[in-house]
Amino acid sequence: MRKTLQLLTALALALPMTSIIPATTTSTPAQASSPQSQEIGTEESVSVRVGGANRSTTVERPGSGYVKLHFTDLRIMPGDVLTVSNPDGTEKYTYTRDLKASLTATVDASGFWAMSVTGDRAVVSVTNPLSRVRIDKLTRGYTEAEMSAQPSVQSICGTNDYKDAVCYQSSNPTEWGKTPAVAKLLRNGSSLCTAWRVGPNNRMLTNEHCFTSTTGIEVWFNYQCPTCGGTNSATVTKVLAAQVLKYSAALDYTLFTVNNFAAISSFGYLELDARVPAVGEEMYIVGHPAGKLKKLSLRDNNNGGGYCVVRAVRVNGSSSQSDISYMCDTEGGSSGSPVLSRRTHKVIGLHHFGGCPNQGVRIDLVAAQVNSLL
User: Minimal CA–CA distance to 283: which of 342, 347, 346?
Assistant: First the structure.
């Protein structure tokens, strides 16, 4: 009898839903759920020298969304500056002999990775003719055609209902007001997740399956459309992940800090709602599905076009009864997104699994482990 009831519950969750929400407190997912990280770029070997008579060069990869360069054979003269920027100089990173002082260099045994530059061209320059560097490899974002060919954990449950975050600025100002604290993660220049500021201090949360080592982790704030339905991003603020404070595979979370916290402190923060939410409670998700400009997943056509709701609680996830489930639309790259209650506008879940229904880790379980570190 118990197995029969569990099977019926799972089948019910897989079917299109109306506004009537079953009072389900425990569940096994109706289909295999998968972590929602996403490959969005690739690495290439190159050999481009900068210095001497050639003190400036442009590296271009047409159609790419970003270019991230690795430098080796470093000889930056005292007082000189190596600059990596976009063509108009609105995004610029500078490096001296003291690479770590920049807070944007990922140093390794052969040289360092500079911060990525948004767009398909990166301009590299030095001022002293005696300075020498060599670009020996790069990562660059996939073109639109390449992205469409990539496998993705796509969990569009019926009609795709998520929209650019700014689309809700007027109709849902409270929900929209929570979106600035959410950031895109670029992992090692080629894959992505989502992360968000938790509490007023230098603390951020994402999934454990996204990373447990901060090496090569970029955090992009304000990667979002300034106008509804736009294609270009507002000015992006990028920082590097600095230190992992705690992580758990069983609850699939990583709590971490960033370099240059002052640069992102103005984006606000989210608060944890350390309770088991109610079945049928309205909720929403903010994230970067498929690496896109920030989206707000608020509506659910499976619920008669109404708001997304919690479908079940104490669902089996990375551990027994660790998750909640919902039909809000997500895609690869949504891993690490905050799931917020429309009643309190605080975080009730940490999204990590795709599938219809989707799943997020219960934030009451995460809070019990991280509250003392916030």
Answer: 342
Q: Buried (b) or exposed (e) across 211-247, using 16+ Cβ within 10 A?
A: beebebbbbbbbbbbeeeeeeebbebbbbbbbebeeb
Confidence of residue 290 (pLDDT cuts 50, 70, 90): confident
CA–CA dist 339, 328 (Å, integer): 10
Q: Reduced to 3 states, what is the DSSP secondary structure of residue 8?
A: helix
Model confidence pLDDT, tens digit, residues 18-38: 333 343 444 444 343 566 567
Q: Is the pTM of this model over 0.85?
A: yes
All residues at 6 or more sequence positions from 8 whose CB lies less than 8 Å from its CB, including other chains: none
Q: What residues does 243 pair with on adjacent strands? A: 257
Per-residue model confidence as pLDDT tens digits over 145-156: 887 777 666 677
Q: Give the C-alpha separation, 313 to 209, whole Å.
A: 22
* C-alpha closest to that of 311 among 99, 32, 26: 26
Query: Which of 348, 347, 351 lies closest to 334 in space, CA to CA?
Result: 351
pLDDT grade for 191, boundaries at 50, 70 and 90: confident
Residues 6+ apart with CB under 8 A from 64: 41, 119, 120, 140, 141, 142, 143
In whole angstroms, give the CA distance from residue 192 to residue 334: 9
